[in-house]
Write a structure and sequence with these properties.
Strand content: over 45%
CATH superfamily of the largest domain: TonB-dependent receptor, beta-barrel domain
Number of domains: 2
Shape: globular
Radius of gyration: 31 Å
CATH topology of the largest domain: Maltoporin, Chain A
Structural class: mainly beta
CATH architecture of the largest domain: Beta Barrel
Oligomer: single chain
Number of helices: 6
C-alpha cells in the first residue's frame, strides 16, 4: 500500500501543532484574566510633627508614569493600575522625599504617609511656623479667608453665626455669646491662641473677652471635647488662632477700617508682622484695635444707653528651629458697655407695662455717652509656650498661661454710690499644660498629658451690697491620653481622661460667715472615626462622654445680677452634669457642589438651667424678674445642614440651617433659651473675568427664623413671632503693586424690619437693631 508522504506530513504537523496552539491560547487567556488593571493606590499625606494634612503634595508612580496631587485633606488616589510592584515617590517643598515600594494584587492599597520637615541648616530651606492642628474626628467648621474678612468688626458671637449649628445668646444688641447646638457659657470652651479663656462666663450678658481681629482662623468643634480640653468643653470648642509667626526675614502690615451707620460705629485694627534677618527662626507680631459706637437704633426709636467702647492689643514673640520652639504672648481686652436703660424699671407696674408694650415708651436719642447701668471689663492674658523634638517621632510640649479678669457692673444708685460698682470681681487663673505628642511613619499617633488649673475669684470690697457670688478658690487636675490610627482614607481615634476638682467658697451674709468645700471628680472618654468614602465624600462619627461640675454662681447666687437686670437664686444641692454626645457628619466637596449634613443626639443627666419663677423683686433700685437655678434630665438633639452650588462661573448660591430641640425629660416640656429653627440662604454674582481670582462679588441673602414653639410651661412673655431679614453685600479686591486692598459694603436688615429674637434676653423690653450699613476696608502691605 502506497502512502502519500505529503498528506502524512500535513496530518502530522496539524496534529502536532493543535495541542501546542491550544496550550498557548489557554495560557494567554489565563494571563489576560490574571492581569487585573482596575487597581488603585489611595493614601493620606500629613505632617510628621502635628498630623496636619498637607495639600498639594506631589505623588508619582514611576513604573506606571501616573501621578496625583493631594487635596486639602491630604488625600490622593491613583486609579487604573495593573497588578504588580511599583515605586511610589512623594514630594513636598521643604520636606524630605518619601520613596515607597507598593505591591498591588487586588482591590485598593491604602496607606498614610507622614512627611518630615527638612532641617533648618540645609541650603534654601526655611523652618515653618508652628501651630498645632485640630486633630479630631468630630464635626469641625471654620471661618477663614474671605468669610473671616467679611465678619470683621463684629463680636465673636455674631461672627460665628455664619457657621451652621452656631447661634447667639444675647443681652441687647451689643452683648452676645456663641451657642453651639443649644449650649453656651460654661459648656462651651473658647481657646485664645491655645489658652482656655477663663473669665466670668456664667452670665448671659458676660460676653467672651476676646478680640476677633487677632484671629487668622476661627474654628468651631461641635462634638463633646472634654477629654481633649477639659470639663467646660462638653458642648463644643471655639479655637481662635492667629497665623503662625514668620521664621524668616519678612515684613507685613494689615489695616482694617470698619464703619457702621447704626450706632455710628467706628472700628480700627492694625497688625504688624515681622521676621528677623539676623536670627533665623525669630518672628514677632503686634496687633491693636479700637471700637466706639453709640446708642443703637431699632425701627422708629433709639435704645438709650447701648453704646460700646473697646480697646484691645496683643503681641507675640517666637523662635523656631528644627528641634526647639518657644513663644511668648500677651493680650489685653478692655471694654465698657452700656445696658439698656429701659431694662431697669422703677416699680412693678412699670415692668408690667413695658413688657406689655414690647418697646420703650420714649423714642430716645442718639448719644455716645455710656451711663449707669453699665459694665466695665478688663482681661489680661499672658502665655509662655515651648516644644522640643526629643526625637523624630516624639515631641515634648509645655505651656503656662496667666489670666486676670476684672469685671465691674454699675447700677443706678444715689449720690456717691452711683460711681461705685455694684458687682466688682477679680478672677485670677493659672494654667499649666505638659504633654507629649508621638507621631510615627506608620499609622499611629497620639497625645498624653496633664493639665493643671488654679483659680481665685474675689469680690473687691467697697460695693456697698452683698456680693452676688462668694469668694472662691478652685483647683482642677486632669490626666488624659489620646491615640489615633490613620491609614489611607480611614482615621480612628480614642481617648480617656480623669479630672479632679476642689472648690472652696466663703462670704459674709448679714455678718455671718458662710463657707463650703466641695469635691468633684469624673472619668470621660470618646471614640471617633473618619472615612473618606471617595476623594469628594467623607463620613465621620464621634461619641463622647462629658461632664461639667456646677459653677459657683449656679450653686450660690443670691441677689441682683445688675447686668442681666434680674435676681438670680442659686442651689447648693446641684450635682455635676453628665452627658453622652453622639455626632455624625456627612460631607461632600465636589467640583461645583459642597454639602454638609450634621446630626447629633445628646442626653444629659442633671442638666442645670436658669428658670424664670414668675415672681418679681422690688427694691429701692427698681423692680426685677426673679430666676432660679434648677436641674433636670435633658435630651438635646437636632441637625445642621450647609451647602453651596455653582450654577455657572458667575452665579452661585448657598443654603444653611439648623434645628435643635431640648426636651426636659422629667417634666415632659422644654427648656428656656434654646434657639429656634433657622435657615439662611443667599445668591451671589461674580463680576470677575476669566481666570481673575480677585474677589468681585455681590451677594443677596435672607435669614429666616421660626417662632420658638418649644417653650417652657412658663415665661415672662410669650416667644416672639417668626421673622425674615434680607441682607446685601458687595466685596471687591484690588491689587496695588505688591499690596492688596479689600473693600466691602454690607447692608444688614435691608428693609429695616422690626423683629425680636427669642435668644435675646432684652426682647421683653425692646425690638432688635434696625437697618445697618457697614463699610469695610482691609489694606495689606
Amino acid at each position: 500500500m502506497l502512502v502519500n508522504n505529503s498528506n502524512v506530513y500535513y496530518f502530522c504537523i496539524v496534529n502536532l501543532k493543535t495541542p501546542i496552539l491550544l496550550t498557548l491560547i489557554l495560557l494567554l487567556g489565563h494571563k489576560i484574566q490574571a492581569q487585573n488593571c482596575n487597581l488603585s493606590i489611595r493614601g493620606k499625606i500629613i505632617h510628621l510633627e502635628n498630623n496636619e494634612p498637607i495639600e498639594a503634595a506631589y505623588v508619582w508612580v514611576i513604573e506606571a508614569e501616573e501621578g496625583a496631587v493631594s487635596d486639602k485633606n491630604g488625600n490622593f488616589t491613583i486609579k487604573n493600575l495593573c497588578s504588580g510592584t511599583y515605586t511610589l515617590t512623594i514630594q513636598y517643598l521643604g520636606h524630605k522625599e518619601i520613596r515607597d515600594t507598593v505591591t498591588l494584587e487586588s482591590g485598593t492599597f491604602t496607606k498614610t504617609y507622614r512627611l518630615e520637615e527638612v532641617a533648618l541648616g540645609l541650603k534654601s530651606v526655611e523652618v515653618h511656623g508652628h501651630r498645632d492642628a485640630v486633630q479630631t474626628t468630630t464635626a469641625v467648621s471654620a471661618l477663614y479667608g474671605e468669610k473671616l474678612l467679611e465678619s470683621r468688626g463684629e463680636n465673636l458671637g455674631e461672627s460665628l453665626k455664619r457657621i451652621s449649628g452656631v447661634s447667639t445668646f444675647s443681652t441687647g444688641n451689643s452683648i452676645s455669646k456663641p451657642v453651639i447646638h443649644g449650649m453656651h457659657s460654661n459648656r462651651i470652651m473658647i481657646m485664645n491662641n491655645g489658652i482656655r479663656l477663663e473669665g466670668q462666663q456664667w452670665g448671659a450678658e458676660h460676653a467672651p473677652e476676646i478680640d476677633p481681629f487677632l484671629a487668622d482662623e476661627i474654628t468651631v468643634v461641635k462634638g463633646a471635647e472634654t477629654v481633649r480640653y477639659g470639663p467646660e468643653a462638653m458642648g463644643g470648642v471655639i479655637l481662635v488662632n492667629p497665623a503662625p509667626l514668620p521664621t524668616k526675614k519678612t515684613s507685613k502690615t494689615s489695616l482694617n477700617l470698619v464703619g457702621g451707620t447704626n450706632g455710628q460705629m467706628g472700628n480700627i485694627n492694625l497688625v504688624y508682622v515681622g521676621g528677623s534677618h539676623k536670627i533665623k527662626g525669630l518672628g514677632y507680631r503686634i496687633q491693636s484695635s479700637a471700637k466706639r459706637s453709640g446708642n443703637v437704633k431699632s425701627p422708629g426709636y433709639f435704645q438709650d444707653n447701648t453704646g460700646v467702647s473697646e480697646l484691645n492689643l496683643s503681641s507675640s514673640l517666637g523662635y523656631s528651629s528644627s528641634k526647639l520652639g518657644v513663644e511668648a504672648y500677651y493680650s489685653l481686652f478692655h471694654t465698657e458697655l452700656g445696658i439698656l436703660n429701659d431694662s431697669h424699671t422703677g416699680n412693678l407696674s412699670d415692668l408690667e407695662n413695658i413688657i406689655e408694650n414690647g418697646r420703650p415708651f420714649a423714642d430716645g436719642e442718639f448719644s455716645y455717652e455710656i451711663a449707669n447701668p453699665k459694665q466695665r471689663v478688663t482681661h489680661h492674658l499672658a502665655k509662655l509656650k515651648s516644644h522640643y523634638h526629643i526625637s523624630e517621632s516624639w515631641k515634648l510640649n509645655f505651656q503656662y498661661g496667666f489670666q486676670l479678669n476684672h469685671r465691674q457692673e454699675f447700677d443706678k444708685r444715689r449720690g456717691d454710690l452711683n460711681e461705685k460698682a455694684s458687682l466688682d470681681l477679680e478672677l485670677f487663673t493659672n494654667t499649666i499644660d505638659l504633654y507629649v505628642n508621638h507621631t510615627h511613619k506608620n499609622e499611629l499617633s497620639g497625645t498624653w498629658g496633664i493639665n493643671l488649673i488654679q483659680q481665685a475669684n474675689s469680690n473687691v470690697p467697697g460695693t456697698g451690697v452683698t456680693p452676688l457670688i462668694p469668694n472662691y478658690d478652685m483647683v482642677n487636675t486632669g490626666l488624659y491620653a489620646m491615640e489615633k490610627y490613620s491609614k489611607g482614607p480611614l482615621e480612628v481615634e480614642a481617648g480617656v481622661r480623669y479630672d479632679f476638682r476642689n472648690v472652696s467658697t466663703a462670704r459674709y451674709i448679714n455678718q455671718e460667715l458662710r463657707t463650703a468645700d466641695l469635691d468633684y471628680q469624673n472619668f470621660s472618654a470618646f471614640l471617633g472615626g473618619l472615612y473618606h468614602i471617595s476623594p469628594d465624600l467623607t463620613f465621620n462619627s464621634n461619641i463622647g462622654s462629658a461632664w461639667r461640675p456646677p459653677n459657683v454662681n449656679e450653686l450660690f447666687s443670691e441677689g441682683l445680677h445688675h447686668g442681666a437686670a434680674a435676681v438670680e437664686i442659686g442651689n447648693s444641692d446641684l450635682k455635676s452634669e453628665k452627658s453622652l454626645k453622639w455626632i455624625n457628619e456627612l460631607q461632600y466637596d465636589g467640583k461645583r457642589t459642597h454639602l454638609e449634613l450634621t446630626a447629633y443626639l445628646n442626653p444629659i443627666s442633671d442638666y442645670i438651667f436658669l428658670n424664670p419663677t414668675g415672681e418679681v423683686f422690688v427694691s429701692l433700685r427698681g423692680t426685677f424678674n426673679v430666676y432660679e437655678y434648677l436641674q433636670a434630665n435633658a435630651l438635646f438633639y437636632g441637625f445642621d445642614f450647609a451647602g453651596s452650588y455653582e450654577f455657572t462661573d458667575k452665579i452661585s448660591a448657598y443654603l444653611k440651617g439648623s434645628i435643635v430641640q431640648a426636651k426636659n425629660r422629667d417634666e415632659d416640656n422644654y427648656f428656656p433659651f434654646i434657639p429656634a429653627n433657622r435657615m439662611d440662604w443667599g445668591v451671589s454674582y461674580d463680576f470677575a473675568k476669566g481666570t481673575d481670582s480677585r474677589t468681585n462679588k455681590i451677594t443677596l441673602s435672607n435669614v429666616l427664623v421660626a417662632k420658638q414653639n418649644r417653650e417652657p410651661d412658663f415665661d415672662i412673655a410669650p416667644a416672639p413671632p417668626a421673622y425674615a431679614l434680607f441682607n446685601i453685600s458687595y466685596n471687591k479686591q484690588l491689587i496695588i503693586g505688591d499690596d492688596k486692598l479689600n473693600l466691602g459694603l454690607q447692608v444688614q436688615n435691608l428693609f429695616n424690619t422690626s423683629y425680636k429674637d427669642y435668644m435675646n434676653r432684652f426682647r421683653y423690653f425692646s425690638y432688635d437693631m434696625g437697618r445697618n450699613v457697614l463699610l469695610k476696608i482691609n489694606y495689606e502691605f
